[in-house]
Amino acid sequence: MQTYIAPSALHGMGLFAAEHIPNMSIICEYTGARMKAAEDKSNHDYTYCIGDEVIIGDGNARNINDSIEFRPLTYAETVDFFCKKSIPRCREYNCEFIIKDNRVFVRAITDISTDTELFIDYGFRYWFIRFIKAGYIDRNYPVTTYTF
């Protein structure tokens, strides 16, 4: 499937459909160098873990955004964050990551029209530490410990 990179309505640059993409179509592969998960990944923003390996994203797929509203959470949203692993989103996802033969692909989960931005779920673990570090959790919520 043909895609292009352009300014995102939500976060910096995004990946867009250059043509109609039918539901369940493979859009692209998440490519890049591989390293062991235990190695220091702090210099890499775009990674995807498969077992004990990490792919350092270097292709177009690294430009797919999540539709998370990265902002301070209200008390009710903080409760949902910890109790339901729920984070406010401003767009529905239209694609997903799939693993096949130890490779990662991006697949459409709905029909996607030409010039539509692609959105994918980065996962709760990805956002958990970012919301904590940014101080976006309502400080009135009594957090003592948390496990995944």
Task: Tell me what you see in this structure.
With 148 residues, this protein is of the alpha+beta class. It has a domain at 3-69 and 89-118: Beta-clip-like. The chain is 14% helix and 28% strand. It contains two helices and eight strands, in the order ββββββαββα. A three-stranded antiparallel beta sheet has the order 3-8-7, with no helix packed on it. The radius of gyration is 16 Å and the shape is globular.
Any key phrases for this structure?
three-stranded antiparallel beta sheet, single chain, alpha+beta, 148 residues, Beta-clip-like, 14% helix
Summarize the structure.
With 148 residues, this protein is an alpha+beta fold. It has a domain of 97 residues: SET domain (Beta-clip-like), CATH 2.170.270.10. It contains 2 helices and 8 strands.
Q: Strand-residue fraction?
A: 25-35%
Structural class label: alpha+beta
* N-to-C CA distance: 35 Å
Low-pLDDT runs of 5+ residues are none
CATH architecture of the domain at 3-69 and 89-118: Beta Complex
- What is the total tally of β strands? 8
Query: What is the CATH T-level topology of the domain at 3-69 and 89-118?
Result: Beta-clip-like
- Taken from the alpha-carbon principal axes, the silhouette is globular
Tally of individual helices: 2
Query: What Rg is obtained from the alpha carbons, in whole angstroms?
Result: 16 Å
Considering the protein shown, what is the CATH homologous superfamily of the domain at 3-69 and 89-118?
A: SET domain
CATH class of the domain at 3-69 and 89-118: Mainly Beta
How much is the average pLDDT?
84
The largest pleated sheet is described as:
3 strands, antiparallel
The succession of helices and strands, N to C, reads EEEEEEHEEH
Describe the strand arrangement of the main beta sheet, using strand numbers.
Answer: 3-8-7
Q: Kindly state the percentage of residues in helix.
A: 10-25%
